[in-house]
Amino acid sequence: MANKDFIKELEWRGMIHTIMPGAEEQLEKGMTTAYLGIDPTADSLHIGHLVGVMILKHFQMCGHRPLALVGGATGMIGDPSGKSQERNLLDEATLRHNQEAIKRQLSKLLDFESDAPNAAKMVNNYDWMKDFTFLDFIRDIGKLITVNYMMAKDSVKKRFNGEGDGMSFTEFTYQLVQGYDFLHLYQTENCRIQLGGSDQWGNITTGTELIRRKLDGEAYAITCPLITKADGTKFGKTESGNVWLDARYTSPYKFYQFWLNVGDDDAKRYIKIFTLLDRETVEKLIAEHETAPHLRVLQKRLAEEITTMIHSRQEYEKAVEASQILFGGATSEALHRLDEQTLLQVFEGVPQFTVAREELGVSIVDLCAYKTQIFPSKGECRKMIQGGGVALNKEKVADPMRSVTEEDLIAGKYLLVQRGKKNYYLITVE
User: Which residues are marked as active site?
Assistant: First the structure.
């Protein structure tokens, strides 16, 4: 067993909402198996899933055995918790594809492959639900839990009280299906604890109740608070949607920028939740941040830790270099190293112009004052070049007659003109 105490570790990090009586005693007995459910509705996790994944990581680091349950069967139904609408249902091929993609992401954080007794395992509830007939289910499981018990759950009450479009029988039975998962894992994997967000409390306790009634067994629940921003709004969403862990959907640069731009109060909480830094290090960082908040020490370290953990040290360094192009004194070489996707994201929102490829060969003055409207006149452009105020691709332009050629293009099709210190213009050559 590792010498760290799982509950104490999560408590100082602000990651405990409710602990069912008996759970701590169970963990003190020795290596315990716990599971956490993950919704497989996409082939990537997003940062909203990261809280649960970090809990599994701490669980394993504390010497216990984590199970990551991909909800293939429950993903076909839809969990009513925290939602006012039913979700779209997925077919099996899509679910299997999503499961494999999710496992690859989890493998960066959890040890699935070693022969350690607490190696993580991924399970899919579709595997044990797919052959379960409806008659068998209502006979063996449905009779154990009363409708009164199910109706008392908050997630059910809210929907019956007029939130959304009511509730289908399918969603009403969701807590029974999730409860059966716990029962099945209790029997097959010796799983004693279910972990989840506080909105899952009702579903989890249905599982512990099923285990008690069917097997006279003892099982427990531990939940974490739902993470919000300091202003109470939902964490993890941006104007363009979810922040994904897969670089195809959210580039490492954008991922890094998300964490770099969180507010001070959020950074103080997130550094505890989303990194593995120890308590002493975190407290030092917070103290350092409070003496000089404008240096954003906390945000920088948070962005470094999490970008490195999810992507790689190399991708983190590329993201930092890309950020410096816009906000610092980055070099022309750094600009030329950018891939097209990152380049466009770095300069998202700056004025853009398009010129034809055959126009190349003209002077920088003609390009900036005639082919585009970066300068209102050639005279003004010449004057600023002579004053050292114009750069092409991060290099100062000294000669107003300098011609712009194919060799200047970034990623084979872009030119970056800088007018003064802060005004950037991106030219696409087609």
Answer: 41, 46, 49, 83, 87, 178, 199, 234, 237-238
